[in-house]
Amino acid sequence: MGSGEIPLKRIVTLCAMLVASPAAAQGIEQTKGSFEDKFRQLDEVLPTANVYRNASGAPGHQYWQQEADYTIETTLDEDRRRSSSRATIRYTNNSPDSLPWLWMQLDQNIFRNDSMAELTDDFGGAGRRGPAVSNASGSQPARLSLEELRRQQTMEDNQFGYDIRSLRLVGGGELKRTVVGTLMRIDLPVALAPGQSVEFTIEWDFNIVEENAVYARSGYEHFPDDPRPGGNDIFLMAQWFPRMVAYSDYEGWHNKEFLGRGEFTLEFGDYDVSITVPDDHIVSSTGVLQNPTQVLTAQQIQRLERARTADAPVFIVTPQEAEANERSGASGMKTWRYSAQNVRDFAWASSRKFAWDAQGHNQPGAENETVMAMSFYPKEGGELWQKYSTAAVVHTMEVYSRFSFDYPYPTAQSVNGPVGGMEYPMITFNGPRTNLNDDGTRTYSLSEKMFLLGVVIHEIGHIYFPMTVNSDERQWTWMDEGINSFLDSIAGYEFDPTLPWSGGIPRDVISYMISDNQVPIMTHSDSVLNIGPNAYTKPSAAYHILRDTVIGRERFDFALKEYARRWKFKRPTPADFFRTIEEASGTDLDWFWRGWFYTTDHVDIALDSIYKLRIDTKNPDIDLRRRREELANEPKRIGVTLNEEQDLPIWVLENPGVRDFYDENDQFTVTPKDRKDYRSFLDGLEPWERATFDRAIREDRNYYVLNFSNKGGLVMPIILGLTFSDGSTERMNIPAEIWRRDSRSVTKLLHFPKGKELTEVVVDPNWETADADIENNYYPRRIIPSRIEAFKSEGSTSRQGRDLMREASE
C-alpha cells in the first residue's frame, strides 16, 4: 500500500457497514442528553414581527421615523480654536406617540473631565480611538506613555464640552433643560402630538480639541513648521452641534450615552448651514455649496465646472495656490453656505493648507446623474493623494452601487487631516500622508499607499452604510462596519488584486476566533474589547462565506441589494437584516446567524479517517484470492522478520515428515462447500436484489466512508478538495445541514467509478471558511511545512511598511 493511498477495508455489503457506523451509536447517545441543536430557529431570539417591521425583514406598512431639520450659523475662531454657533431646529413627530420632552446629543461633553466616558475609561484605554497605554491584564508593571501624559495634560489645561448660551422655543420663551452627560432633555410646554412639529433655537460655544492630543473623531491639527507665523491648522469639525437623539419604534428614545466607541444613532433631515471662517481658508462640507461666487474665484468656478465632465481629477485649488495661502495670512472672514437634503448628520473641514481636486462620476438614470468626487489635502499629502484619493472615491461608488443602489448624494469627498478615518454624509476624514525627505522630495511606503486606498474606500463606503442605510451604530457597530468591511475588501481586490490586502476575508479572522478574549458579534459596541476583529473582520468574513460558500454569489448579491434597497433612508435592526437575507436568498440561515453572531465558537472541522470500501462478490474464486493477496501485502510479524535476519532454521522445512494438508492449502483455498454456498446465496436473492448486486459487481465502484469531527463547535459546510490516482481533481461542497442531527461528528459516504481511486482529501482547500487548524484537514496527514530562520529578538520592519520609494533613490 503506497503512502498516498486511502486505507482499505472490505465489507460483505455496504448496508451492513453503514448500519454499524459510529454515527449510529452517537445518535443513540444523543437521546441521553448530549444533543445540541445548532439548527434551532432564531424565532425565540429575534423580536416578534409587527406592523412596523414585518417577518420578511422589510419595513412594515405602518413604518415611521422622525425628522429633524437644521438651519445653522457657525463661526470658527481660528486663533482661539473655538466654535460659536446658533441653530434653529424643526423637529417633526411622525410617531404614533405624544412626546412630552425631546432629547438631544451633546457629544462634545465626552471631553469633560467628569464625563461618564472619562470616569469609566480603564487604564488600558481600550474604549478610546487612541492607542492603549498599559498592559490592562496587570501582568506587567503599569506604565504611562508620553502620548497618555500629553492627553492628561491637555484635558487638565483646557475646558472642553458645550457651553449652551440659550435654548428657546421659536415664538416662545426659554425652554427648561436637563443635561445628563452627553445627553440633554428638553421639556416642552405642551406634549408634541403625532404629526406635529416644534421649532426651537439653541446657541452654543465649545473649545475645539486637538485631535492628536486626545484621540477624537474630530478636532484640529497644528503645523508649527509652516511658513506663516504661529503655524497653520487643519480643522475637522464633526459632532460639533447638538443633534437630536433618535426615537424609534423598537426603543423609544435612544438614551445610551456616548462613551467613545459606540458611534451614532441619528435622524434624517434637511440642513442649511452657513460656515464663517478666515477668508484664506478652503471649506469642504456635507452638502452642496450655495454661494460659490462669494467664496471662490472666477477661475476656480470654471475649474469646478470643467471637472464635472473630466476623465481625471482637475485641481480647483492647486497645490501651489494652497502653499501661497499658507504664506499669506487672512485679512478677514468669509462665509460658505452649504445645503443638504435628507442626511442624518453634517460635518465640515476648513484650512488654508488645502489643495482641492475634483472629478465628476456619472450615474446615468440616477437621481444624481453626476456626483462630484473631490479631495482636499495639504502639501503633506503629496503625490500619494494626487494619484489615489479621488480615484479611490470614484472606484468606491462604482463597486458599492453594484451591491446596493446609486450613490444617493451630489458630492463624495475625501479630506486629509489628523483623524485616521471617519465618515459623515458626503464627507470623510482620512489620515495617511507622504514622508518628507532631506532633499525636499516626498515619498511613501507600500503600506501608506494601501492605507490611503483602503481608508478612502472604507470611509466613502460608509456613506452607503450607515449614512443611507441608517443602522444603529451606538448598539450594533457590526451592522455597518461589517457590511462595509466586506464591500471594501471586494473593492480593494477589484482595484488591484496584486496588493497584499488583508483584514476582511475568512483567513484574517482565525486568530481572533480562537482567542480567549473573543465575545459574540452581538455584544454591545461599548462592551467589546477588540472592536476591529469583532465588528469589522468577523462579520466581513461571515459575509464572504455566505457569498462564496453557503449561498452563492448570485443569490447573496441579490439579497444584499434587496436589504439595501428596502432600508435606504430607513433604520434597520439586526432582525431586519437577518430576515431579509434569508427571505431574498431563499435560504434558512438561522444556524449561521446563531453560530457566527451569537456565540464564540470557531471553525475547526477535522477529517479523522477514511475507509475505502469495495463490494464483496461472494464468489469464493474471486474474493478468497483477493484476501490472500491482501494478507501477502501486510507486514510480516516482527519476530519472523528478525528470525530471517538471523538465518534461523524452520522446523517444517528441516523435517518434511511433519507436513500435512494445510501446508499445501491455506485458509483461502476454495472448497466445494464455498462454491455451493455462493450458488445458494445467489438463488436466495429477490430479483431486485440480484439486479442490484450484479450491477454493483459489474461496476466495481470505489466507496469511501469519511469520518469528520467538529472540534471548533461552529457548524459549517464541508468543502472537500479531492485528488485521484489518475491526477484529476474535484471539489465537493457538502451543506452545513449534514451536522443537523449531530453537531460533533458526522460520517459521509462517497463513491467513484472503477479505476478512479482517491489519493488525497483536503477539507477547505482554499481556506474559505476560517478553519482554525488546517493540518487536521489533510488525509493522509501531511508533513507540516516550516522554516529554519535566523532572527534577532527585536522584530524588523516589514518590507511593505518601509518607504522603498525613498530607499530606491538613495
TrEMBL record:
One Gene Ontology biological process: peptide catabolic process
Pfam families reported for this sequence: Peptidase_M1 (PF01433)
One term under GO cellular component: extracellular space
GO MF annotations, alphabetized: metalloaminopeptidase activity; peptide binding; zinc ion binding
Annotated signal peptide: 1-25
InterPro entries: Peptidase_M1_aminopeptidases, Peptidase_M1_dom, Peptidase_M4/M1_CTD_sf
Keyword Signal: yes
Cited Gene3D superfamilies: Neutral Protease Domain 2
Protein's name in the database: Aminopeptidase
Organism, as annotated: Qipengyuania pelagi
UniProt keyword annotations, A-Z: Aminopeptidase, Hydrolase, Protease, Signal
Domain of life: Bacteria
Keyword Protease attributed: yes
Chain ranges of the Peptidase M1 membrane alanine aminopeptidase domain: 393-596
